C-alpha cells in the first residue's frame, strides 16, 4: 500500500471536483473550490474521520468495497479507479468479479438524470450503483453480498423481494428474469460465475427450475411495470434499458407512465429518506 501516494491522489481528486457534479449546491459562503471531506464521506457512505485519515496517510488498508465507494463518490474514470486500487495495494476487480464496479461514465449519467430514478446493473442483475431517486423508489440495493446481490436469486428465494410487485404481475416478472438470465448464459457460455448461479437457483427454487426448463430467451430493453411502495402506493413505471457495447453493464431508467405515478413520485421526493422503511433497505 502506497499511503503517501494514495493520500495525495484522493486529496487532489477531491479538490478538483465541483459540487454541482455530484448534486451539491455551491453556496456563496463556500470557501473550498472542491468537495469538502464530509461531503466525500457522505457520498461514499463512510465516516469523515476515515476520509481524513486516508488523506493524511494514517489509515489502515481500505477494503475493495470502500475503494469502490470512494471511486463512485469522486466520479473516477475507469483508469483512475484502477490506479486507486493499485495505490491501496489491491488489484482492480476483474470484469465479472465480486467487487465489480459501475463504469464511471454510467455513474455520471446517474448524476445527470437527477430526479429521474436510475440504476446501473451488471448483466447478471447486480445493482452496482443507484441515484437518490432510485433509492427513494426501490430502497438501497447496493449492499447485498453473496448470491443475494443477484436480483434473480433474491426474487426466487426471498418473498420480501417480490413484495414490491403486484401478485397478478409476479409470474410475468419471474419469466422476464429467467429469460434474461438465459440470454446471459448463452452469451457467456462456459463462464463458471453464470453456471454456478444457475445451478444454485435450480437447487433453491422449484419455480426457477420450471421456468428455466421452458428455455425462454429475451433481453429486457423496455418494459412497463407496476411498483408497490409502502409510502405512496402503486406507481406505473416505464423502464428503459441502455446496454454498454460489451453488454456487461446496463443503465436502467425509470419514468412515470401516467399522471398519477408522476404525482406520487413527486410526493416521494418531498418525503425523502426520513423514516425510510427498514425493509426496503438492502440486507446482506
TrEMBL record:
Molecular functions per Gene Ontology: DNA binding
Matches recorded under Pfam families: HTH_31 (PF13560), MLTR_LBD (PF17765)
Cited InterPro entries: Cro/C1-type_HTH, Lambda_DNA-bd_dom_sf, MLTR_LBD
Cross-referenced PROSITE patterns: HTH_CROC1
Superkingdom assignment: Bacteria
HTH cro/C1-type domain mapped to chain residues: 34-81
SUPFAM superfamilies (alphabetical): lambda repressor-like DNA-binding domains (SSF47413)
Name of the molecule in the record: Helix-turn-helix domain
Species this protein is from: Frankia torreyi
Lineage: Bacteria, Bacillati, Actinomycetota, Actinomycetes, Frankiales
Amino acid at each position: 500500500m502506497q499511503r503517501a501516494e494514495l493520500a495525495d491522489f484522493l486529496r487532489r481528486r477531491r479538490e478538483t471536483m465541483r459540487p454541482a457534479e455530484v448534486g451539491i449546491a455551491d453556496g456563496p459562503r463556500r470557501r473550498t473550490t472542491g468537495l469538502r471531506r464530509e461531503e466525500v464521506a457522505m457520498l461514499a457512505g463512510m465516516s469523515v474521520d476515515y476520509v481524513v485519515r486516508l488523506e493524511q496517510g494514517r489509515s489502515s488498508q481500505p477494503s475493495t468495497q470502500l475503494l469502490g465507494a470512494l471511486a463512485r463518490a469522486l466520479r473516477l474514470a475507469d483508469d483512475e479507479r484502477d490506479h486507486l486500487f493499485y495505490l491501496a495495494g489491491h488489484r482492480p476487480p476483474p470484469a465479472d468479479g465480486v467487487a465489480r464496479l459501475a463504469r464511471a461514465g454510467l455513474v455520471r449519467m446517474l448524476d445527470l438524470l437527477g430526479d429521474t430514478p436510475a440504476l446501473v446493473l451488471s448483466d447478471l442483475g447486480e445493482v452496482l450503483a443507484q441515484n437518490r431517486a432510485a433509492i427513494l423508489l426501490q430502497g438501497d440495493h447496493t449492499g447485498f453480498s453473496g448470491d443475494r446481490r443477484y436480483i434473480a436469486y433474491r426474487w426466487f428465494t426471498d418473498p420480501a423481494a417480490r413484495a414490491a410487485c403486484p401478485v397478478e404481475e409476479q409470474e410475468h416478472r419471474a419469466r422476464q428474469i429467467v429469460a434474461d438470465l438465459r440470454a446471459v448464459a448463452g452469451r457467456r457460455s462456459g463462464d463458471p460465475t453464470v453456471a454456478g448461479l444457475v445451478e444454485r437457483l435450480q437447487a433453491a427454487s422449484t419455480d426457477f427450475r420450471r421456468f428455466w426448463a421452458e428455455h425462454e430467451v429475451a433481453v429486457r430493453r423496455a418494459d412497463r411495470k407496476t411498483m408497490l411502495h409502502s409510502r405512496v402506493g402503486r406507481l406505473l413505471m416505464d423502464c428503459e434499458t441502455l446496454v454498454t457495447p460489451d453488454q456487461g453493464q446496463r443503465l436502467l431508467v425509470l419514468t412515470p407512465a401516467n399522471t398519477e405515478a408522476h404525482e406520487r413520485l413527486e410526493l416521494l421526493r418531498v418525503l425523502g429518506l426520513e423514516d425510510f422503511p427498514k425493509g426496503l433497505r438492502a440486507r446482506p
